[in-house]
Design goal:
The chain has eleven helices and 13 strands. β9 and β10 form a beta hairpin. It has a single domain, classed as Rossmann fold (3-Layer(aba) Sandwich), CATH 3.40.50. The radius of gyration is 20 Å and the shape is globular. By secondary structure, it is of the alpha/beta class. Strands 2-12-13-8-7-4-5-6 form an eight-stranded mixed β-sheet. It has a three-stranded antiparallel β-sheet with strand order 9-10-11, with no helix packed on it. Pfam families: Methyltransf_12.
Length: about 350
């Protein structure tokens, strides 16, 4: 299950074109501020190996915001936050009708199948950033990495699986690419790079009580979940996390990326799209949720906040970051605030009782 906006594509919005920006703590906590335009040195703009350093193009007061297409670590200002809260209030006042709520929630697979049928020509985008943000993907594809089983949940058109295979040198790597949509699985299987020696694509509902086809308990080394958890309803999260726990080996990791609260995609929703708090129906009938950091900690560990309480899900947070970026349309002088959540969750050796 992969959203039509899951690649982080920019959406233009005229209302926000005059807003100002300020640096968030991720940038301002640095020991010394960067001199004007030092961040524009190409050497400083490369992705870092740490998956939670989302880039180094930092916006300072001396910079012209429209000089580049994107800036990293940009926190939204009070004007944008006030505008967003007004939008949320309007969304709550005009929610999805009870009839449509039942229609969209009763058979979500139908809408994802339609999505892939209607976008056969343009939904594949090579996620070149994957191995930069998640270095473990580079490690498992090395020639001497040995037997590795990777499960991708919500594989979509293969935007994650095929880029990994393209760079793979490990003859013992096996990718299980699973998706809720039958049409998406068909698209993967029809790809010229599909070879059952290294990749197996199957239909699987992550929130069902069954494990993925061909996989049993504790047999997976890495689980990749890129813009898929947001497609589940909040009532399905617990079962999905339990399923991931079951298939992972002790010490295995989940690589996670999804939408964050306040992302422009959320702010833009009009009336008739609000299902419940932070949960919406897109125009194509697919669902999307926007997460907060503490919320994800609770979902994946059972803790209210990091460092408190006892884990009840069997996962610990290796790292969890908020990726805030400012995308710019220089020709139209427009600003677009994006927010994504990115994390790594590790299966504990033993489940800690709550």
């Amino acid at each position: 299950m992969e959203s039509s906006q899951s690649n982080g594509e920019a959406v233009l919005v005229n209302d926000l074109s005059s807003l100002t920006v300020r640096e968030c703590s991720a940038a301002s906590d640095r020991p010394e501020p960067l001199p004007p335009h030092l961040s524009h040195d190409p050497e400083n703009n490369l992705k870092r190996s740490d998956p939670f350093q989302f880039g180094s193009r930092l916006l300072s007061q001396e910079d012209n915001v429209f000089e580049f297409n994107a800036w990293d670590h940009v926190e939204t200002d009070d004007t944008y936050k006030e505008y967003a809260e007004l939008q949320y209030a309007k969304q709550r006042e005009a929610p999805v009708s009870d009839f449509d709520k039942s229609r969209f929630n009763s058979d979500p697979a139908k809408w994802w199948n339609n999505f892939y049928k209607n976008n056969t020509a343009n939904f594949f985008k090579d996620r070149k950033w994957l191995q930069q943000e998640f270095p473990v993907l580079s490690e498992i594809t090395k020639p001497d990495a040995g037997p590795v089983t990777l499960l991708e949940v919500g594989a979509g058109a293969g935007n994650t699986a095929f880029p990994i295979l393209k760079h793979n040198q490990n003859p013992y790597l096996k990718i299980h690419a699973c998706d809720f949509s039958k049409k998406a699985v068909e698209v993967i299987r029809e790809n010229e790079a599909y070879n059952t020696k290294n990749i197996q694509a199957d239909v699987w509902d992550a929130a069902s009580e069954d494990l993925p086809p061909g996989l049993g308990e504790a047999c997976v080394d890495v689980v990749v979940m890129i813009f898929i958890f947001s497609a589940l309803s909040p009532s399905q999260w617990k079962q999905a996390v339990q399923n991931i726990y079951r298939v992972l080996k002790p010490g295995g990791e989940v690589l996670f990326r999804d939408y964050g609260r306040g992302d422009l995609a959320q702010v833009r929703f009009k009336k008739g799209r609000y299902l419940e708090e932070n949960f919406y129906i897109r125009g194509d009938g697919t669902r999307v949720y926007f997460f907060e950091k503490d919320e994800l900690v609770k979902i994946w560990t059972g803790k209210e906040i990091e460092g408190t309480g006892s884990a009840s899900t069997g996962f610990e947070v290796v790292n969890l970051g908020v990726d805030r970026r400012l995308l710019v349309n220089r020709a139209k002088q427009l600003k677009m605030y994006r927010c994504w959540m990115q994390g790594r969750f590790r299966k504990q050796e033993k489940l800690v009782p709550s």
